[in-house]
Amino acid sequence: MALLITDECINCDVCEPECPNGAISEGDEIYVINPNACTECVGHYDTPQCIDVCPVDCIITNPSFIETKDDLYLKYQQLIKQTA
């Protein structure tokens, strides 16, 4: 599943540089996660790095993008091919 940053985000800037896929960017009011690029760090780390560093716990599973770990790994492989 892709992740989602809620409106509890305080724009602290710690999540964006931690994302190995570049899925996090500054939105109009809060940071946002591109669900097409979010693999929950599958392929890179054991846990989502943005969740690990978020000081206010405002990153949740995006209910609009339900994916298995296998789906996330396939997405990771596709992203790697695009950057190669």
Automatic annotation (TrEMBL):
<keyword id="KW-0408">Iron</keyword>
<feature type="domain" description="4Fe-4S ferredoxin-type">
    <location>
        <begin position="1"/>
        <end position="29"/>
    </location>
</feature>
<dbReference type="InterPro" id="IPR017900">
    <property type="entry name" value="4Fe4S_Fe_S_CS"/>
</dbReference>
<dbReference type="GO" id="GO:0051539">
    <property type="term" value="F:4 iron, 4 sulfur cluster binding"/>
</dbReference>
<dbReference type="InterPro" id="IPR017896">
    <property type="entry name" value="4Fe4S_Fe-S-bd"/>
</dbReference>
<keyword id="KW-0249">Electron transport</keyword>
<keyword id="KW-0813">Transport</keyword>
<dbReference type="GO" id="GO:0046872">
    <property type="term" value="F:metal ion binding"/>
</dbReference>
<dbReference type="Pfam" id="PF00037">
    <property type="entry name" value="Fer4"/>
</dbReference>
<dbReference type="InterPro" id="IPR047927">
    <property type="entry name" value="YfhL-like"/>
</dbReference>
<protein>
    <recommendedName>
        <fullName>4Fe-4S ferredoxin-type domain-containing protein</fullName>
    </recommendedName>
</protein>
<keyword id="KW-0411">Iron-sulfur</keyword>
<keyword id="KW-0479">Metal-binding</keyword>
<dbReference type="GO" id="GO:0005737">
    <property type="term" value="C:cytoplasm"/>
</dbReference>
<keyword id="KW-0004">4Fe-4S</keyword>
<dbReference type="InterPro" id="IPR050157">
    <property type="entry name" value="PSI_iron-sulfur_center"/>
</dbReference>
